[in-house]
């Protein structure tokens, strides 16, 4: 009877091992297919129960062997036990990964949960890049995914991507699913969105900047509780010394700074967070910024070194930049075209002047502002370089431009070129230069009209880039002009200036230019 029992025990053990191997193969197949969590758990439970039965049979079998046979049987069972342990660990890892999505983060499992009772599904939190919500998001993600030791970093990165949207997702868009990239992603998110200084500032502004209106008591209570609780979570409890009046004052004053000044102050707080509550440092920062802005004000002198003859205003300066052309440009460009008919030839070759009679010709040249002798703009006949020394060849000195217009087509081309080269040069910033060597500023002569038929010739100064000119007060009084009262400051060399608030502004439109 004992012999029969000893023969049936090895067979029973062998059959148990075969059955356990079959169960483990089925478990591996379920793991490869990533089957349902419940199915994997049930297969693992069945395998564990059968393993314990086989282990009991193995121990009973070893009692029937001698010492040498026992050692050999134990070594064989150790290899079998190692294979079972590896399959179980692999299954448990996948089960933990699947459970991480389905269980409530941070919940404590009850006795029923240990018996595989599934809790209601709770989705992982989402984060879109709002710095005020990063701490709340990270606390939940850390407890449910980040602290899972059995979960690989590659799997954690997959869960992290699924929780991010908007700017937050864009911050880690270039990272792969490698294990090392998960740590890089966590570090990058914390560097960019874990900004307690910025969050504290926004929460303080929510409290201090509460609109002054009639609040519903419940709404006001919820508003204060929500912001105070959020500040307390950041270690800035307004009910204690953790949040000082200096930090509140700095936060409010920062919002009134220009954008560039705010950026510079934020750079300092990023380098040293203690500056956020250092009122003395903030006051010194404001003084430094005020001094720098004062030292970098634009000079009141024009680039040529001469004091501007106009009192510029921001509105006028904008218009000047739009046009970008002054009297200097006008003087240079006007010589390339005929001032009489606006053709692409010189005034001396203008057919309108050639065909006109004496008085009509003089009127055309006077209207165009041309010299009666050389037909060039910029000076009058008595200041012309050809006046007095050069006499008209045809003896007709009474008609303007006779010396030029009397040229015939039979004249040699070389003689014409020599005559044209005799024209006085025009300086860039000067309207004319007389024989004595004195330079004249650019001016335009215009008629200033008063009430009725009263009018007077006035000289309008055309300085480089000028927007306004002056006329004498006696001229304005004689014409009876009544302009708009303006305040004006005239800047001179060395920083000197004079202020006047009793000047009239007049508008002069170009209508007729006299000789």
UniProtKB/TrEMBL annotation:
<keyword id="KW-0862">Zinc</keyword>
<dbReference type="GO" id="GO:0004190">
    <property type="term" value="F:aspartic-type endopeptidase activity"/>
</dbReference>
<feature type="compositionally biased region" description="Low complexity">
    <location>
        <begin position="298"/>
        <end position="310"/>
    </location>
</feature>
<dbReference type="GO" id="GO:0006508">
    <property type="term" value="P:proteolysis"/>
</dbReference>
<feature type="compositionally biased region" description="Basic and acidic residues">
    <location>
        <begin position="383"/>
        <end position="393"/>
    </location>
</feature>
<feature type="domain" description="Peptidase A2">
    <location>
        <begin position="458"/>
        <end position="495"/>
    </location>
</feature>
<feature type="domain" description="CCHC-type">
    <location>
        <begin position="371"/>
        <end position="384"/>
    </location>
</feature>
<dbReference type="InterPro" id="IPR001878">
    <property type="entry name" value="Znf_CCHC"/>
</dbReference>
<keyword id="KW-0378">Hydrolase</keyword>
<dbReference type="InterPro" id="IPR005312">
    <property type="entry name" value="DUF1759"/>
</dbReference>
<feature type="coiled-coil region">
    <location>
        <begin position="13"/>
        <end position="60"/>
    </location>
</feature>
<dbReference type="InterPro" id="IPR001995">
    <property type="entry name" value="Peptidase_A2_cat"/>
</dbReference>
<keyword id="KW-0175">Coiled coil</keyword>
<dbReference type="GO" id="GO:0003676">
    <property type="term" value="F:nucleic acid binding"/>
</dbReference>
<feature type="compositionally biased region" description="Basic and acidic residues">
    <location>
        <begin position="405"/>
        <end position="423"/>
    </location>
</feature>
<feature type="compositionally biased region" description="Polar residues">
    <location>
        <begin position="394"/>
        <end position="404"/>
    </location>
</feature>
<feature type="region of interest" description="Disordered">
    <location>
        <begin position="383"/>
        <end position="424"/>
    </location>
</feature>
<feature type="region of interest" description="Disordered">
    <location>
        <begin position="297"/>
        <end position="327"/>
    </location>
</feature>
<keyword id="KW-0479">Metal-binding</keyword>
<dbReference type="Pfam" id="PF03564">
    <property type="entry name" value="DUF1759"/>
</dbReference>
<keyword id="KW-0863">Zinc-finger</keyword>
<protein>
    <recommendedName>
        <fullName>CCHC-type domain-containing protein</fullName>
    </recommendedName>
</protein>
<dbReference type="InterPro" id="IPR021109">
    <property type="entry name" value="Peptidase_aspartic_dom_sf"/>
</dbReference>
<dbReference type="GO" id="GO:0008270">
    <property type="term" value="F:zinc ion binding"/>
</dbReference>
<dbReference type="Pfam" id="PF13650">
    <property type="entry name" value="Asp_protease_2"/>
</dbReference>
